[in-house]
Design brief:
The protein has a domain of 81 residues. 70% of the residues lie in helices and 0% in strands.
Length: 118
């Protein structure tokens, strides 16, 4: 019985002219996989001991807004859950960056609330 094999070679070339900042950031995050435990320590200690207490203090000073408290807890939960689930750094580092952006937004809102601008 004879069999026929097809060996087709297709010459394709992919040239990416420019990369976005987001794709470069994600590629850098993928490259940080060997430093995953360092990032775990930075995220948990930095967020749990520095960023979240400062955010909660700002919320208390601005008048104890329940919405801002819930957002601060949510931002902390984003970082904590992704690290406790042992997800790769291409997910944990952007989640940490997102949680920092949420905390910065809370700090700005608390500052504007305490100045009676909002």
């Amino acid at each position: 019985m004879a069999t026929t094999t097809f060996n087709h070679t297709i010459g394709t070339t992919y040239n990416q002219t420019g990369t976005s900042v987001f794709s470069r950031f994600i590629n850098w995050c993928k490259g940080q996989q060997e430093n995953r435990l360092i990032w775990l320590g930075v995220v948990v200690a930095g967020h749990g001991c520095v960023i979240t207490p400062l955010t909660v203090l700002a919320v208390v000073m601005a008048g104890n807004s329940l919405v801002l408290f819930m957002l601060a807890i949510f931002a902390m939960a984003i970082s904590l859950i992704t690290n406790l689930a042992a997800l790769p750094t291409k997910i944990t580092i952007p989640a940490f960056a997102l949680s920092i952006l949420i905390d910065v937004g809370i700090l700005i809102t608390a500052a504007l609330t305490s100045l009676h601008i909002i």
